[in-house]
Design a protein that fits this description.
197 residues; globular; binds inosinic acid; alpha+beta; single chain; 5 helices; eight-stranded mixed β-sheet
Length: 197
C-alpha cells in the first residue's frame, strides 16, 4: 500500500521509510511531485498545522498521507517559540537561538517548557487522525550536550540530570515527543492496515 509523507526533508523521509517499509508500505514524499504547491501553514496549533499539510497533499495524490509538526513551548514566554520554533530568529544558528532563550529567561524562576510533536494522518477514506507526543522539561541555565539537534542543548530533564542533547539517541527516542507520537502512529497503522508481507 502506498503512503505519502508531506515533506521533502530527506532525513524525515528516511526515518519514515525505516519505520513504515517493514510494515509493507511503499513510502513516497513530496519531492516526487512536480506540480504540488505546499499549503500555507496558518493553523494556531501543532495539530492544526500537521493536518493542513497532510490534507494538502492528500487532496493532491489521494493516497494515505502523513505530515508532522513539532516545536518547543516555554511557559514563561507565553509558550514561545511554539509553532514558530523552526522559524524563530530566522537567519541565526541554534547556538544563538538557544543563548537568546536563556537570556530572555534571566532572573525567571519558571523554567517550565515542553516539546510537542503532532503527526497527522489522512486515511484512505479521507478521515483525519492525529497522534501526539509531549516531553516536559525545563530550560537549562547553560547549554550542554552535542547529541540531538535544535533546542536539545537547553532542554533540561530533571529526572536524568541531563539536557536532551546529553541523551543517547535511543534514550531520547524512548521518552521524546516524537518517539511517543511515532509509536502511536505505528500502532494505528498496524491495526488499520495489516499489510505486512
Ligand atoms: P518542524 O520540522 O517544522 O516540525 O520543525 C520543528 C522545529 O522545532 C525544529 O526545527 C526545532 O527547532 C524544534 N524541535 C522539534 N523537535 C525538536 C527536538 O526533538 N529537539 C530540538 N528541537 C526540536
Amino acid at each position: 500500500m502506498d503512503i505519502m509523507i508531506a515533506t521533502g526533508n530527506k532525513n524525515k523521509v528516511r526515518e519514515y521509510k525505516e519505520m513504515l517499509e517493514p510494515l509493507g508500505f511503499t513510502v513516497h514524499d513530496t519531492s516526487e511531485l512536480t506540480d504540488y504547491i505546499e499549503p500555507v501553514e496558518d493553523g494556531t496549533t501543532f495539530a492544526e498545522n500537521a493536518l493542513i499539510k497532510a490534507r494538502g497533499v492528500f487532496d493532491h495524490v489521494s493516497m494515505i498521507s502523513i505530515a508532522d509538526d513539532s516545536g518547543l513551548s516555554i511557559r514563561a514566554l507565553d509558550n514561545e517559540p511554539g509553532i514558530h520554533s523552526a522559524r524563530y530568529m530566522e537567519g541565526y544558528g541554534y547556538p544563538e537561538k538557544n543563548r537568546n532563550l536563556i537570556e530572555r529567561l534571566k532572573g525567571c524562576d519558571d523554567r517550565f517548557a515542553w516539546f510537542t510533536c503532532d503527526i497527522a494522518l489522512i486515511d484512505h477514506n479521507g478521515q483525519p487522525h492525529v497522534f501526539e507526543g509531549i516531553m516536559e522539561g525545563e530550560i537549562a541555565y547553560e547549554p550542554a550536550g552535542s547529541n540531538g539537534f535544535g533546542y536539545d542543548p537547553i532542554f533540561w530533564l530533571g529526572q536524568y540530570g541531563k539536557t536532551s542533547a546529553q541523551l543517547t539517541p535511543d534514550q531520547k527516542n524512548a521518552i521524546s515527543h516524537r518517539g511517543q507520537a511515532t509509536r502511536k502512529l505505528l500502532e494505528f497503522l498496524k491495526k488499520e492496515y495489516d499489510n505486512e508481507e
